Amino acid sequence: MITRIAKLLLLCGIALFYTLVVFNNLTDFDSNYEFVHHVLAMDTTFAGNHGMWRALTLPAEQLVFYWSIIVWEILTMALLWVGSWKLFRALRKTAVEFRDAKQVAIGALTLSMLMWLVAFLSVGSEWFLMWQSKIWNGQEAAFRMFVVVGIVMVLLVQDEGRVTKDE
Fold first, then answer.
1. Is pLDDT above 50 for 167?
2. Using alpha carbons only, how large is the chain's radius of gyration in Å?
3. d(C-alpha 138, C-alpha 2), whole Å
């Protein structure tokens, strides 16, 4: 039972994280928009780099990009809370029922990992050369979140161990 509770609590922790991220992005829109603006504009990358043709400098393009990240976060947050609720409801059920209750949570964690890997580490860091910026570089934070979510994913997909007749 303690393993199931640990899985549930860690999942809730990530759901809480996403809740705060969404809250911050909606209530302090400009702070994170500023980050997205500079990454997409590539205005703090190395001078004279040959990738500047990739820059998105139109505010409309940047807003679409930023809103797509926020929608991605909202969807992830909602699925994390639904997945947490399903796990909570299955805590005392059989091992098969608990395993089946994990599906939404696994999908939500996958969506989260894809955001950090695709949007930030691939598109932001490599396509828009975020790695070149000393000011607007979110690689470390993205990697940290990818690893944290990945660890929870690995724990979540593990069986709880020995199954008794009561489970």
1. no
2. 19
3. 35
Question: Amino acid identity of 13?
Answer: G
Torsion, CA 148, CA 73, CA 158, CA 161, rounded to 10? 100
Residues 133/39, Cβ–Cβ less than 8 Å: yes
Once rounded to an integer, what is the mean pLDDT over residues 24-45?
94
How far is residue 149's CA from residue 19's CA, in Å, rounded to a whole number? 15
Tens of pLDDT, residues 96-116: 999 999 999 999 999 999 999
Is there a contact between 7 and 83 (Cβ–Cβ < 8 Å)? Answer: no
Mean of pLDDT values over 42-66? 94
Structure tokens at 31: 């702070």
Provide φ and ψ at 152, rounded to 5°: -65, -40
Q: Spell out the domain ranges in the chain.
A: 2-157
CA 1 to chain centre: 27
Could you tell me which residues come within 8 angstroms of residue 33 by beta carbon, excluding any fewer than 6 positions away?
Answer: 62, 63, 66
